[in-house]
Amino acid sequence: MAIKHVLLVGGTHGNELTGVYLIKQFEQFPEIVRRSSFKTSTLLANPQAFQLGKRYVDADLNRQFRPQDLADPTLSSYEAQRAKAIYQQFGPKGAQPVDLTIDLHSSTANMGLTIILASSVIFNLMLAARLVSVNPDIKILYSDLSIDDNPYLDSISKFGCKIEVGAVAQGVLDAALFQQSAALVYAALDYVESYNQELSSNQSNFDQQRGTDSLLVYHRVGIIDYPRDEQGEIQAMIHPRLQFQDYQPLQPGDPMFLTFAGETIAYQGDSTVYPVFINEAAYYEKGIAMCLTEKRLLNF
Amino acid sequence: MAIKHVLLVGGTHGNELTGVYLIKQFEQFPEIVRRSSFKTSTLLANPQAFQLGKRYVDADLNRQFRPQDLADPTLSSYEAQRAKAIYQQFGPKGAQPVDLTIDLHSSTANMGLTIILASSVIFNLMLAARLVSVNPDIKILYSDLSIDDNPYLDSISKFGCKIEVGAVAQGVLDAALFQQSAALVYAALDYVESYNQELSSNQSNFDQQRGTDSLLVYHRVGIIDYPRDEQGEIQAMIHPRLQFQDYQPLQPGDPMFLTFAGETIAYQGDSTVYPVFINEAAYYEKGIAMCLTEKRLLNF
């Protein structure tokens, strides 16, 4: 089935300026995201949070897309309302349903150029594999949490991913990451275009034509919080040797935190992991100092 | 005259976590900032902004220390009230007047380790010169704006400075910058200790004993805003070649901004300058893309 409508989203978090200004650029120069075989729409998802220079007004918009919440008329926070409006416009029963959603984020962690997949439907894997073939520095972060734990905006369509770039401070527009994110979006749109054209010329199911492929993914296996006291106050910092070391191997016994008393706390696991989202500013309040991943090869 | 009371301040901006957690550490382990010849006090200046994870609640606390504002009972924003309370406690006519204030800040710009002097009284220059002799990587940023344009917290005492470290995102605690800031504070306290002891052993004015000294300072000469449209919306980003190049020479004709249409805007001045606070997140709303400085040698 051809992809007929692609939605590019920025500003789901209002202080992640890369996505916000990419969307503004795409709206100013729509020809750069226009392709012949599908429609491209753009969305500044949380305009009020952007105006306030905040991640969100009342609650994290990127956690508002549980089906039961979207159907609940009593939820009235600004972001719950935004989620319902977005779903009513672009969701499967919406006015302009989309087939693929690409949601543009940034992180204070050293995420480089990351594609986050919350669903392993084949098209998502094919898209990710193509993007890695275009730029081998791209990392694929995969999480198989259920939608209840992963109620992300990109779940409104059958296919979707998040682009997560960093390190960049909240409220800062970094031109290099802006350009790299733009290049990733263009490569994704080009892939959709070639996918549609291949499908059209074969008059058959693309999935049945393609060979097997494989994709190296960093599979989320858990989270680690900061050491805290009874009041929830953090008692340690990310160890300086771990700071900015996202996607690098962390071995049992390696330094993980440094307490304010000057003591090192080591990683206590029993196998090598690859931490990501190390010291993400927005995750202090979520109780996440880093996410742990394992490297896995997905064959599809 | 001996220094009898030193005030260490953090969290003047609630989302600059280096200073916040240094103050918490000093309060947990007071012996590390205790010296024999003077009293050391600590202050978490804007606790409500810290709780909210914001720079400020109503207004920038570090712009609330104009004498006329401190004397104005009608000013009632949270930060105006905080400023008056701080001044009443630690100001010259306060309950516990301080002689020297060191205010700990951080920046999303690549400020490295910077001492900001808003007053060139000799003691400030001697302190700065000592800190540079301990760590030659330290930069001295000097501004001779009047108190009306510089109503900073460290103006409550005769002597004072700000310590500005970066690059670090708002809401992020970076262990390396935390340790470097701590070392700077210890060196400053050690200098005050040696100053007091010298004064005491000479039974005379320290200023009259000392030889001449000189200090390389980056003297603030102006600011540059982002190119904006009529609505105030930014139309360009810091050029990728300028990002993180704080304190590096910027020549006439060098790239300064990159517009969303892809055009480079060059620096139009007629002499070499040294930009600082390049792409500071908190300065977008102040209309400052960077501050321009000139290198000058201060003899004193």
Compile the SSE list and pairings:
The structure is a homodimer.
Chain A: E1 5-10, H1 17-28, E2 39-44, H2 47-52, H3 67-70, H4 78-90, E3 100-106, E4 112-117, H5 122-134, E5 139-142, E6 159-166, H6 175-202, H7 206-209, E7 214-224, E8 236-238, E9 255-259, E10 264-266, E11 274-276, E12 290-299
Parallel strand pairs in A: 1-2, 1-3, 3-6, 4-5, 5-7
Antiparallel strand pairs in A: 4-6, 7-12, 8-9, 9-10, 11-12
What does this structure look like?
The structure is a homodimer. Chain A is an alpha/beta fold. In chain A, about 25% of the residues lie in helices and about 25% in strands. Chain A has seven helices and twelve strands. Chain A has helices spanning about 15-30, 45-50, 65-70, 80-90, 120-135, 175-200, 205-210; strands at about 5-10, 40-45, 100-105, 110-115, 140, 160-165, 215-225, 235-240, 255-260, 265, 275, 290-300. In chain A, the strands form two sheets. In chain A, strands 2-1-3-6-4-5-7-12-11 form a nine-stranded mixed sheet. In chain A, strands 8-9-10 form a three-stranded antiparallel sheet, with no helix packed on it. In chain A, helix 1 (about 15-30) crosses helix 6 (about 175-200) and helix 5 (about 120-135) crosses helix 6 (about 175-200). The longest helix of chain A is centred in the middle third of the chain and has 28 residues, at about 175-200. Chain A is globular, with a radius of gyration of 20 Å. The relative contact order of chain A is 0.15. At the A-B interface, helix 1 and helix 6 of A face helix 1 and helix 6 of B.
